Amino acid sequence: MESLKKTFINGRSTAAERLPDDLENCLSRKKWGYEMRTIQVGSRKSKLALIQSGMVIKSLSSKSDHFSFDIKHIVTKGDRILDVTLSKIGGKGLFVKEIERALLDGSIDFAVHSMKDMPAELPQGLEIASIPKREDPHDVLISREYKKLEELSPGAVVGTSSLRRAAQILNIRPDLTIRSLRGNVDSRIARLKSGDFDAIVLAAAGMKRLGVEEKGENLPFDLMLPAVGQGALAIECRSSDIELKALLETINNEETAVTVRAERSFLKRLNGGCQVPIAAFCDRRKDGMLAMSGLVASADGTKLLKTSRLGDQPEALGIMAAEDLLVQGAGKILSDLGTESDTDAR
Fold this sequence. Notes:
It is a single chain. The protein has a five-stranded mixed beta sheet with strand order 2-1-3-10-4, with helices on both faces. It has helices at residues 2-9, 21-31, 47-63, 77-80, 86-89, 97-104, 163-172, 185-193, 204-210, 242-248, 254-269, 314-328, 330-336; strands at residues 37-43, 67-73, 110-114, 126-130, 139-143, 157-159, 177-179, 199-203, 217-219, 233-238, 278-284, 290-297, 304-311. It has three domains: 36-132 and 232-252, D-Maltodextrin-Binding Protein, domain 2 (3-Layer(aba) Sandwich); 139-219, Periplasmic binding protein-like II (D-Maltodextrin-Binding Protein, domain 2, 3-Layer(aba) Sandwich), CATH 3.40.190; 260-336, Porphobilinogen deaminase, C-terminal domain (Double Stranded RNA Binding Domain, 2-Layer Sandwich). It is an alpha/beta fold. The chain is globular. α11 (254-269) runs parallel beside α12. The model is unreliable at 1-24 and 340-346 (pLDDT under 50). It contains 13 helices and 13 strands. 44% of the residues are buried. It holds the Pfam family Porphobil_deamC. InterPro entries: HemC (IPR000860), Porphobilin_deaminase_cofac_BS (IPR022419), Porphobilin_deaminase_N (IPR022417), Porphobilinogen_deaminase_C (IPR022418), Porphobilinogen_deaminase_C_sf (IPR036803).
């Protein structure tokens, strides 16, 4: 497969007789010098989203000179509604639905998402064609007085709009006050420094991609398990676009893809979305086994269910971890949160 992929990307038709007809047609166009294809890339307008799209375009451009790229800005429901916490807006895919509609109607060719924003189920005809190497999946606590989570004063106000983060913080420190905080990274940090909050929690991956160098505490996984796919990017395109899928595969990181598959399998079994207190992280151990940790919590942090599992098949591992939590009562917690979960302990 690697040799075929390389042959296609370099525009040479050796071994082309083994390729699908539509891909052979793509090779023939390039062989005879037809005009290069311009790929339309859908992106949210935020600074982070544009940086992430630019990173992907740069990587793809280094793999082939047969394509050019244009970015099309798309505003999502999650971008439009800024004065309400994400959990109260409701629904899944708050930052992706409008982009997926553009994919399906052909106005864009692929989109770069933060994996943690992706629902467990994708619309028919779309797929995640590539997952580049994962950035740091940790959450970071930044406080005005450079304190760690355990050092914050009782009653200190912590800003986050994530139920997952809030629930885990309250489970450890029920004496803290959680207040909603939305907006881009720069505006969140500005509100912290202006005194609106004593501390805020941000994703390490976003900070690094933006070049933000604020002093903070990288919260260990035993205190703060990340969102499913946190730190990874999801490159989504139409399943029928064979030419583009071949290009996108060249920047896929298999290690990241395997571990994220386990996490998304966990999310799918729980019928959860990115706006509920579900957390998971999978990593490969030195012996080759996959180590999976999963969590479901009540919004107030009083109930926090955890599991850890080992396995070598990512999808099966994610399902087993989810089943562990369903046996413990995760289905009831998620149902009470209004996730329309049909998950019951089986």
